[in-house]
Amino acid sequence: MRLQNTIKSDIFITGLGLHCGSEINMRLRPAPVDTGIIFIRTDKNNARIKANVSSVSDTTFATTLGVNGSRVGTVEHLLAALAGMDVDNAYVELDGPEVPILDGSALPFVLEIINTGITQQVKFLSVLRILEPIVVNEGAAQIAITPYEGRRITYRVCYTHPAFGEQKLGIDMASMKFESELAPAKTFGFLKDVEMLRSRGLAKGGTLDNAIVLGDTGVINEHMLRFEDEFVRHKIIDAIGDMSLLGIPIYGHIIANKSGHALHVKLLRKILLCKDSWEIVAVTKPQHSYPVSEVAEVQVCK
């Protein structure tokens, strides 16, 4: 059992938006218990957008939230940093349409949280405990969540590319150090997709400093790789950020194969529909601990 947490003091961050290419000022502020994470568009009459699956408006190349015409995009890395550091409640003020991309990982946000510190609050945390498996299939991609006394993610990616084919990793959130084992993993993309996005007026802020870019034969900026399996580690970051949109920590084992933002959100929506497959409980039991290297089988990647 643990108490809810918020940050000790304000955090100020300035950086480019990945898609809009504009400089964005962001301030994270402490928030009361049971607030969750709320985005505030200071340039849109302080429009509030709760970080919740009901607010998801787009999952194309990033997760975007929107309410009543106000939007905030590329939220997944910041949400993953907050969830990975057990920050349950915070206000996030922005004067633009995106969370700054910074170096393309969750690490800059994590370092700011560590520097500022975390404050325990006066109410205990509840979690959503999975009682029965819930599965979503979409073509060759699958994602499921099964019962597990703790928070575990197993992820597999598979690409037909000379730089890498299949990467897989299983982690237990209680036994790993988010700030060193996941947070540094950068976002990645393919050069052909970057060219397509820019032709549509997107990825204006994307550079070799904030993304790993794969050309036809390999990684263009290979010296930037921080892990041998960086691609699957970053996919787990995305999953942690997206799954936090349920608004309550999930006790269960997420198993994903060739998944992404859209399928993450579909799983959350199916969880909400399958009310007999979970219960809300206080955290009273220790979580299981497994080595980061252990990987459960999902499905043979074809």
What does this structure look like?
It contains six helices and 19 strands. It is an alpha+beta fold. It has two domains: 3-125, Ribosomal Protein S5, domain 2 (2-Layer Sandwich); 127-282, lpxc deacetylase, domain 2 (lpxc deacetylase, domain 1, 2-Layer Sandwich). Strands 11, 12, 13, 14, 15, 18 and 19 form a seven-stranded mixed sheet that branches. α1 (76-84) crosses α2 (107-116), α1 packs across α5 and α5 (230-243) runs parallel beside α6 (261-273). It starts with a strand and ends in a 20-residue tail after the last strand. Mean pLDDT is 89; it is low at 285-302.
Within CATH, the superfamily of the largest domain carries the name lpxc deacetylase, domain 2
Using the coordinates above, name the CATH class of the largest domain: Alpha Beta
Give the end-to-end Cα distance, rounded to a whole number of Å.
41 Å
Computed Rg: 18 Å
Helix content estimate: 10-25%
Mean pLDDT: 89
- Domains, number: 2
Order of helices and strands: EEEEEEEEHEHEEEEEEHEHEHEHE
Number of helices: 6
**Main beta sheet:** 7 strands, mixed
Question: Could you say what the CATH topology of the largest domain is called?
Answer: lpxc deacetylase, domain 1
- Poorly predicted regions: 285-302
Kindly estimate the percentage of residues that lie in beta strands according to DSSP: 25-35%
CATH architecture level-2 label of the largest domain = 2-Layer Sandwich
